[in-house]
Amino acid sequence: MGKIIAIANQKGGVGKTTTSINLAASLGVLEKRVLLIDADPQANATSGIGLDVESIEIGTYQLLEHSSSARDAILKTETPNLDIIPAHIDLVAIEIELVDKEAREYMLKKALQEIKDDYDYILIDCAPSLGLLTLNALTAADAVIIPIQCEYFALEGLGKLLNTIKSVQKIHNPELDIEGLLLTMYDSRLRLSNQVVEEVQKHFNDMVFQTIIQRNVKLSEAPSFGESIINYDAASKGATNYLSLAKEIINKNA
Fold this sequence. Notes:
Elements: E1 3-7, H1 16-29, E2 34-39, H2 44-48, H3 60-65, H4 70-73, E3 75-76, E4 82-85, H5 94-98, H6 107-112, E5 121-126, H7 132-140, E6 143-149, H8 158-171, E7 177-184, H9 191-204, H10 217-221, H11 229-232, H12 237-252
Parallel strand pairs: 1-5, 1-6, 2-4, 2-5, 6-7
Antiparallel strand pairs: 3-4
Helix pairs in contact: 1-12
């Protein structure tokens, strides 16, 4: 049975999409069957994996609307063992359209029921907000990965996200677990980066992944070529970091 992991943080620019794409690709390379779901109207995971966003006809929007089945929305990618349910800018409208629907928080959970067993891991790239899209992802997920940027405002807003996760656990999804806090954009030369790492590890102990994602030029370049870091430069520091994270998750779930 596949494990569904949401990658969420209401702060923008913390490495959610970078993590979604590259963790998915790394798990695929390690011979796990992976589905990546783009649940962000910006559709960066879709373009970052090499798909033309404008040509998307069926994606997360149709899935949440239940006008299309999950199987019909799945597209193959060039990365081994990695499929994607893409997004399009029309996903912006879904929050308004779902507002008066019954059981609106469970739309994604219902839609994924039929394909959950087809994959080892299903990763959901969430929007940088705590709206209905992210709520759907957290309700559908078995666990959540929280990327935290190694910068001054990193811990600001983390309490709010953890409170949201607690209320989702209480009301919608008692099974929701925190897979881990992931430190991203780490620069060992900066004292601030090291301070953030120390703070997070001191406060959250075992909840923090041992793998830390370092700042890496290749990681920033890869999406502009529509490739994961594994396809773009498998020898780079970024690829090493994400393969290490993938192994850590596989071992944790063994």
